[in-house]
Amino acid sequence: MTNAYLDLLNRGGKRIRGALTIAGYELCGGKDYSMIVRAATALEMIHAYILIIDDIQDQSKVRRGKPTVHEDLAAYHKEHQLRGDSYHAGISLALNAALAGAHSAQALLAGLTVSDELRIKALGIINYTMVITAHGQTTDITNEIAPNVSTHDIENTLEWKTAHYTVLNPLCVGMVLAGAGCKDTDAIRDYALHTGKAFQITDDIIGTFGDDTQTGKSSMDDMREGKRTLLTEYAFDHAEPADINVLKRCLGNKSLSQKDFVVCRRIIRESGSLDNAQAVAQVHTDQALHALTDQGREWNMDTTTFLRGFARSLAKRAA
Asked: In this structure, are residues 187 and 297 in contact, taking their beta carbons and an 8 Å threshold?
């Protein structure tokens, strides 16, 4: 169980949350790099825990080019001819692995060599964010099963599931550990939320149009799962009636064929949905950059430059 969690943790990935934790710390003048690397490690450990849960809920089979943790543990159960149902055992053990990883991260955070006040503030931010993230993940799931989904529902998912968790949380944790107060964490909020939304929209585009060898998972996963994104909602509103029926039939179809998936991608392109999603992502990027420039606070110049580059890089990424 522990080995499966550690294997996922060591597969790499973008390490965005750890990097932004360090960036937030440097932004406000932090100098204890041994401590902040431990904090960044803890946030990456929490991310691995979240990925395990997300893969179970999405019924995903591949993560970062290898079997998801629950699939890996189910395969171990089957290979060794253990008692009971392999799939159920895989999920049960994966959930335990996720919980062990999450609480190990909390223990790491509890031992940070900072004042009690700063440690408690950082832990409070992280746990509050996880509550928001749980609501975002719930909204993502209910969007898949609800008869009607609005653009507002999609936007809530972008903000609650991704923007708070991926960008605002690590930046604020790093800033607080450097001794920053509410004025600084409030000042970074608009940058973080717009960057997070741009990140998720781009992620959804890559999820459907990306190269499997670069993303480490199947580009058909989101369509098979029935994930509702700006791509699907815009296509439902702007595609031809016959194409809308095809898209509705394919979205959430666990047996979706490669041939039908190619048709769905064509519908999304021809409806203008891909262009629209890219444009919306760019708007959020522009707003993030404006928010960062508009603050005029005495933040570390090199780190501010890094944050600008990070926001600009989102539209160009392929995985």
From this structure: yes
